Fold this protein.
Amino acid sequence: MPTPIRTDQASAERRRRSGLVRLAALVLGVVYLVLGVAGFFVPGNAGSTSAGPFGTHATQYTLLIFSVSPLLNVLHTLVGVVGVVAARKVGGTAIYALALAVGFAGFSAYSVLVLGFGTGDRFNLNWADVILHLVTMAGAAVLAYAAFRIRRPEAAGS
């Protein structure tokens, strides 16, 4: 039978894990915030297409390998700001990560359908965006699991 961890050791371990989970949410938020804000500075991207900011696919507007459009930039900036704010507490991180995992699962499905069938791409997506969003979804799911385990330590032993 394993020896139970002393309360002060368990508390220190919980604080350490809490800090790591919060740091991961902060990094994720900052990456999306930078990507979203930088996308607004891509030359010619202000209107994205002749159809306006919510127009159709225009592949010439990219930042590194990722597509940009005003709508996608707003989405990325919002994800970033919420991530930075949510990183203040483990509870906020848990909810943020879970919402991000679910949201990006849906958005990734939308992206694959739009790029696969070529209909109504309002976000100006490309396959690099799809991969970014799928990786974010998987990372957010792991982050949510870790954050919820920290919040409910008695569930970790069962």
In short: The first strand starts at residue 62 and ends at 63.
